[in-house]
Amino acid sequence: MNQSEVISGNPAGAHWRDYVALLKPGVVSLVVFTGLCGMAVAPGHLHPVLAFTAILCIAIGAGAAAAFNMVFEAELDARMKRTAKRPIPAGRMSRDEAMAFAVILSVGSVAIMALGVNLVAGAVLAFSIFYYAVVYTLWLKPRTPQNIVIGGGAGAFPPLIGWAAVTGDVTLMPVILFGLIFLWTPPHFWALALFVKGDYANAGIPMLPVTHGVAATRRQVLAYTPPLVLVSLLPWLLGYSGALYGVTAAVLGAVFLLLAVRVARNGATEAVAMAPEKALFKFSILYLFLIFAALVLDGWLR
């Protein structure tokens, strides 16, 4: 079976694990966590059943967006070593089958969120799916090296949705949380892109290391880090959180900045010599988990 047959709709036989893989569970786990944190720090109370429903809708909506991404990028995935084994390029599922799965999940999650929780949360969830599937995947990613910068909004919606699920509105605090993830995304993904830039080049994706080079990308990683640290401190500086969160954000931000400086000073061009980039990428995931966890814990203790 050749690649064109696989993508056009002649699967070798999809397994339930392939449907799970379409959802990008690793990414969805972070989405669910930040969405749950947005709910936890929001003022007010949501019935446990509704809270569970909201989190489930956030998870399913994020999975639907990931499935759309895999459908639209099936040919690109087939050309990249890191993604070639995904269900569609590997021939285990047809593109049409994956598209139907994505549509059902997206419509179902938005409808249940809007009707079961509230319209504001449903609307933000719908826009987040559209933003990731269309604005980022179809429009930005194949056209501009700033795809990660603007597309960073796609992953920044969950705390906004979680907050809206509880309050029915969007105020300054969830916007700050949106901004934190938005600014975190470029250094996080560019750190990854630096040591897998060969894959992006082979696939024809204009990621910054491919279009502007390694040195320019490293400078951008460093440039985005101070604004990220500043925004992470805003909940404390504006009185939305206490000292526990403030100290945690400051310490994590200092470590993030130190690692970003190490990346900027690294002169290596080969992936095997990019230990600072790999260290920053791994820490950036831990950073987001810890900073949101600290925000929730601070709120519980205040």
From TrEMBL:
Native organism: Sandaracinobacteroides saxicola
Further information: Carbon 2 of the heme B porphyrin ring is defined according to the Fischer nomenclature.
CDD domains: PT_UbiA_Cox10
Biological function: Converts heme B (protoheme IX) to heme O by substitution of the vinyl group on carbon 2 of heme B porphyrin ring with a hydroxyethyl farnesyl side group.
Predominant place of localization: membrane
EC code(s) of this entry: 2.5.1.141
One Pfam family of this chain: UbiA
Pathway membership: Porphyrin-containing compound metabolism; heme O biosynthesis; heme O from protoheme: step 1/1
EC class: transferase
Entry GO CC: plasma membrane
Keyword tRNA-binding found: no
InterPro entries noted in UniProt: Protohaem_IX_farnesylTrfase, UbiA_prenyltransferase, UbiA_prenylTrfase_CS, UbiA_sf
Protein name: Protoheme IX farnesyltransferase
Reaction it catalyzes: heme b + (2E,6E)-farnesyl diphosphate + H2O = Fe(II)-heme o + diphosphate
Name of the gene encoding the protein in the UniProt record: ctaB
Transmembrane regions: 21-43, 49-72, 98-115, 121-139, 160-183, 221-238, 244-264, 285-301
Superkingdom: Bacteria
Membrane topology qualifier: Multi-pass membrane protein
Keywords for this protein: Cell membrane, Heme biosynthesis, Membrane, Transferase, Transmembrane, Transmembrane helix
GO BP field: heme O biosynthetic process
Family membership noted in the UniProt record: Belongs to the UbiA prenyltransferase family. Protoheme IX farnesyltransferase subfamily.
GO molecular function: protoheme IX farnesyltransferase activity
Subcellular location field: Cell membrane
